[in-house]
Amino acid sequence: MAEEIEKSVPTEESLMEKISEKIHHHDSSSSSESEYEKPDSPSAVKAKIYRMFGREKPVHKVLGGGKPADVFLWRDKKLSGAVLGVATAIWVLFELVEYHLLSLLCHISILALGGLFLWSNAHTLINKTSPQIPEIHVPEEAFLVVASSLRNELNQAFVILRSIALGRDLKKFLMVCSFFVADVCCV
User: Fold this and answer.
1) Residues 6 or more apart whose Cβ sits within 8 Å of residue 104
2) Membrane-crossing residues (predicted)?
3) Measured at the alpha carbon of residue 176, what is the angle toward residues 173 and 179, in degrees to the nearest 5?
């Protein structure tokens, strides 16, 4: 019985020593020398042992470091809370209220246009300068190139649909039929 007590005391002391080493090792604010040691050194092997799940890098480095990792790990609490709040508001808006993205974009643009209209008309009453809204011109050449490529793609699709309807391409006809059958069965 006395032997068991004597064996447990050194184990507890060595455990306490390990804990104090770990605490004092992390308390140092200067750069750690273990970061610059070779991976074969005993302290590097010891550091690997204490990492959860046997990771070689800290979680902050795995997430890419910087602001995104700070947000994910809640190191910047205000920004993380803001991201969580915006994500929750978007979820509530689209899932629970069943609001649509197109409706949201239209309402935002109407509010922005109304605000600019009021600002430009009320500038004389509040002695402010009117907003400087730049003129936007779409170049004709770029628009014609996009329209021409879209026209070519549509004509190509109509040629394919015509060949399927006339029965000239049996493989594509069967693919289209199987697609529509699968679509009707899933609904």
Assistant:
1) 93
2) 79-94, 100-119
3) 150
Q: What pLDDT digit, counting tens, does each position of 44-67 carry? A: 555 445 666 667 788 888 888 888
For residue 145, give the amino acid letter. Answer: V
Q: Helix, strand or coil for residue 135? A: coil
Q: Is the dihedral of CA 75, 76, 80, 83 positive or negative?
A: negative
For residues 97 and 145, membership in a common domain is answered with: no
**Helix, strand or coil, per DSSP, at residue 169:** coil
Condensed to tens digits (0 to 9), the pLDDT of residues 72-101 reads 888 989 999 999 999 999 999 999 888 898
- Which domain covers residue 67, as residue numbers? 38-101
| Residue at a domain's end among 49, 77, 101 | 101
Which residues lie below 8 Å from residue 136, measured CB to CB, with a gap of 6+? none
